[in-house]
Amino acid sequence: MKHDQDAPSIAALACVDLERWPIHQPDSSAYGRRLSEVRAALRNQGCARIDGFIRRDCLKMFDAEVTGIAPGAHFSSSSINPYFTQDDPSLPPSHPRRRYSENTNGFVAMDRFPEYGPSLSLYRSAHFQRFIADSLEEEQLFTFDDPLAGVVVNVMKEGQQLAWHYDTNEFIVSLLTRKPDQGGTFEYVPGLRRPGDECYEEVEDVLDGKSDRVQYLSLELGDLQIFKGRFSLHRVVKGKGERHTVIFGYAREPGFIGRVERTRKVHNRVTQAHIDAEKYTRSDGLAD
Ligand SMILES: O=C(O)CCC(=O)C(=O)O
Ligand SMILES: [Fe+2]
């Protein structure tokens, strides 16, 4: 997808606290210092808090944009285990694979965002993309071609929760634009499982509230979070008042478009681009 990079980029960086996070000067030593902090946090904790990333005087603009489109969120609720799998009655009832909790997600799709508003401008900013890729120690990252999923708002209404789970995607980049009056805390357990080992006993301890490894991240407005959720169990607890986060999706390869079935689940609709992408993949089995 071709975007007019220049004008939105300038607007996007105007919202970033460049003194704290000099993402416009990726060759500077200040950038290098901040980057090594972020990388260390991601390596050691699987989670980095980019505190005060958005300038205080721009927080209202983000909140207004997100609050304006939040009523268009599509909600889906289900009972999930940490792995999003079906029940397996052959296991004991206390086994993590048999532990189901209520999980509610509300998402606003990308095509509901104002075209030149702060969220899409930031998403498409070359400097922002460079910073996220550098943080994750990736050569390059690409915006999605998916017309719905590139940037989304995650809306949690009062009393809604995200149950303990692992993500299927490797990382998530999110910005808190509305904080509940109470609760809504992000909780996670760094590196709880590893490739080839689910560490079920440790997971069970977390689910039973007996683990001392749980970390609590109380994000402030304008904080950006980079989180690697594939190996770190995590949840968002219920809050008082609504919670909004903008989630920025990037891929290692260009051209990413989500699958029809998953898109329908998340957004309750699909676009022609989703249908075409799936048809094409099916017909020759190739991605490009
Ligand atoms: O909103 C958050 O802080 C976490 C979201 C999350 O875990 C997810 O979407 O998988
Ligand atoms: Fe997650």
From TrEMBL:
Residues 143-252 form the Fe2OG dioxygenase domain. Coiled coil: none annotated. Keywords: Iron, Metal-binding, Oxidoreductase. GO terms for molecular function: metal ion binding; oxidoreductase activity. Belongs to the iron/ascorbate-dependent oxidoreductase family. This is Fe2OG dioxygenase domain-containing protein. It comes from Roseibium album. The lineage of its organism: Bacteria, Pseudomonadati, Pseudomonadota, Alphaproteobacteria, Hyphomicrobiales.
